[in-house]
Amino acid sequence: MKKIEAIIRKTKFDDVKDALIAADIEWFSYTEVRGVGKDREERIYRGVIYDTSSIERYLLSIVVRDVNVEKAVDAVIKAARTGEIGDGRIFIYSAEDAVSIRSGKRGEATLFNA
Predict the structure, then answer these.
(1) DSSP string, 78-105
(2) pLDDT digits 0-9 by tens, 16-49
(3) Phi/psi at 48 (5° precision)
(4) Fewer CB atoms inside 10 Å of the end CB: C or N, the chain?
(5) What does the alpha-carbon distance between residue 38 and residue 96 come to, in Å, rounded to a whole number?
(6) Which helix (H) or strand (E) holds 76?
(7) Whole-structure pTM over 0.70, yes or no?
């Protein structure tokens, strides 16, 4: 099993969610996060200067069987890419085990997708 963490633009969330569902990735969680990138700039709106170096993003946490890793990563890339700085990052980790709290099942049996 692998855990995929994807940091994406908030504006691309619905596209990524739809792409994951279309790729048969049936479950993931997400949280709102803030980060600092290397692009630093200030924007002026109605005479007020705003620092845009702190960026709002979504962090998606997806756990899949090994056979579904590339399918999930490809879905995120295709749906989240704009070609501009700040499209995000994807990190892939090994997941040693999983336990279903309700049933007590362990391992890949806890995952929905085949």
Answers:
(1) HHH--SSTT-EEEEEEE----B-TTT--
(2) 999 999 999 988 999 999 887 666 666 677 777 7
(3) -105, 135
(4) C
(5) 33
(6) helix 69-80
(7) yes
